[in-house]
Amino acid sequence: MAKPLQYVLIGFLVLALAVGWMSVARRTDEALVVYCAHDLIFASQILDDFESETGIPVVVVGDTEATKSLGLVQRLLREKENPVCDVFWNNQVLGTVELAEAGVLQPYRGSGFERIPEQFKDPDGLWAGFGGRLRVWIVNTDSFTTEESKVLEAFQSDDLSQMTIAMPLYGTTLTHFAILWNQWGGSETKAWYDDLLERGCQISPGNATVKNLVAEGVCQFGWTDTDDYFVGLDEGAPVAMLPIRVDEGKTICIPNSVAMINGTSKKEETQQLIDYLLSERIELALAKSGSRQIPLGPTDEDALPEDVRELIPLAAQSVDVTDSASARIECLKWLSELYTSPSQ
Amino acid sequence: MMSAMAVPFLIPSVMTGYCFRDTSMSLVHHPWMREGLYAAIVLMQLFPVAVIILWLSPPSTVTDSAIHLGRLARTSWSFRFRLALQSRLRIHLTAFCLLFLLSFQEADLASLMQANGWTEWIFTKHSRGLELGETLRLAAFPMVVHLPFLIPIVLWINSPRPDDRHNIRRLSKAHTGRTLLICSWIAASLLVVVLMPTWHLVRGFRFGLNMVGSQPTLIREVSDGILIAATSGCVCLGLVLTLRSTFQTGVPRLLLFLLFLPASMGSLPWGLTVAEIFQTAGFRFAYDTPVPLILSEVLYLLPRAVILFHCFDLSENSPARKMIQLLSESGNAAQKRIGRELHWKFHGRKVFAVALLLSYWSYFEVMLPSILAMPGLAPINYVLYNSLHYGRIAALGVKLAVAIVIPFVLVTVLISLRRLFTRFF
């Protein structure tokens, strides 16, 4: 190829790449940057609707399985001095509490905040919860009974090879373990988990995999969240669910949480999005979505799907998840060491 | 033949993961079978690399007879050891080291199939969040393991170009039995790593075709992937070409070592290290830009680019190259045009192939974009990998198929455009 032509082609390539990168950079110019740990399959529609209704562009950064569900919390901590994100939509609460304690968040008490019950929001207004999920037993109805007493009996047996739970280092299973740690103390939780593993309980990479293993009959029962259970149910899998109960028969309801990042330059737009997410309309939309999130604020119950309406009394019996914030840090430290010790 | 052999190595792990993830998960009661399945797939994917290295490498100047004579002459152990290192053992050692490094670094498929490994261990270590010093300390572990295996590779790359009369294909000398074994293994690799995942993809595509309309971000995600891949591929290529023109007699060994070090950490520790570095005061200004991602991708791809160029050098014929150069510089316009065309066939095509391969690897890289992509940038492979979390949803097959087809079409258009240009200019 002739030299001048070569230079023209290289020039054209450089120009094309520069234009491409400039258009990428422009995407965030006026946009709200939302770090979203909730499944994007469900969250995208809500954020797209916000964008089209308000005209405020939104750029979403999702969590990945590659960095697990702790990825965004760690990223926000890393970016504390140089914030890139405006709004954090977490799919649970304890990570958000850690961010609040680390000074990553700033308070906002808007109309949305006011409608959320005290139990599900930070008294200083640093975050608020919405759309909760319950921790549940998922049972394969083809190979096992759905009777609660029988499931609990099987859980106490010597052989747990037919049971599966998600790796407790991440996500809602970590929250679940933090609650146990808070109730029982560290040494009892450690002994209990050792015993669970000794009896052959299978550890899966995530709650979706727990659902898959039980739905396909590879395991008879396991622990997951209601959103994963409903995905299985909608796929026609032979599954049923029972609420997981901890001390005093309380259930575990883990809400989503939303917070404003300290140092955001788009305060007004951020507040608009937070109010939007905490509104009754969005709680209803989440309840009607495939993930069937349970509304936490007052909502028109007649507008809720039947299966979500049945979950509302169970959510009301939940432990206060935020009580376990400090337990989570200790529990995570132990689990991290446990899973990286040479014997593992 | 060589292209067909290389196909298993080029199949993206997200595609094999898409095919085998459920099978792997169903082996939850048989962890050793799961590890075995993972190891078999990785071996099938990487085996062609070793065959190609052995095929392209010229025979050693130290023959088996020379080693035997050395033994008969009762020369010193050290001399015989040095002799052995210069024999064909050297090529075998290089191929082995390359295989070891590639399998040791494999992280994407391991994560999708939940196979145990040091990458998962490092993930877990980072679950609490670590300071830069701690991240570097953890990254030192894979680097220390990598270093002894890097030595033979660096020496192989740094060795002088062999005389062309030695440049003959090795497989022609192979035993029939061995050839049969290699061919069977390659056939099995093609079946397990290429045909089965392709069939899953086609099936997923058929069922999910009507869902393409409900994926408005698909084209943007593919464009983002292509943008990162093209930028990383071109910058990396430019860097290697500059290195080659600066050090015409061969890049110094120490420099090669240094350039190979970042990639030897593995993509996860390397990505985390870059992220931490760009959060320090001196580099923070560039954190929210494409610089960290492109820099990390370029340095991660660099060893592959160097190895690819060395492989092409080994297969090149110097007198032919000289003749083509003379033709290209001829005063006769027709000769000059033929010379230019030949130059493209013998040299340009190789550079283009290296650029394509580098871009291809960058396009299907998962870890680095997941850690370093700036907000608003969501390359398709990262999205696909994320979607696998939800199981085999129908739209995933469509996305994966589109992700593979669009770059393929783009490359075909580029090649056609080049032909068009050379016809008129």
From TrEMBL, chain A:
Keywords, alphabetical: Signal
InterPro entries given in the database record: Ferric-bd
Protein origin, superkingdom: Bacteria
PANTHER family given in the database record: SLL0237 PROTEIN, THIAMINE-BINDING PERIPLASMIC PROTEIN-RELATED
UniProt protein name: Iron uptake protein A2
Naturally occurring in which organism (per UniProt): Thalassoglobus neptunius
Source organism phylogeny: Bacteria, Pseudomonadati, Planctomycetota, Planctomycetia, Planctomycetales
Gene: futA2
UniProtKB/TrEMBL annotation, chain B:
Domain of life, source organism: Bacteria
Organism field: Thalassoglobus neptunius
Listed transmembrane segments: 37-56, 89-105, 138-158, 179-202, 222-242, 254-272, 292-312, 351-373, 393-417
The entry's keywords: Membrane, Transmembrane, Transmembrane helix
Protein's recorded name: ABC transmembrane type-1 domain-containing protein
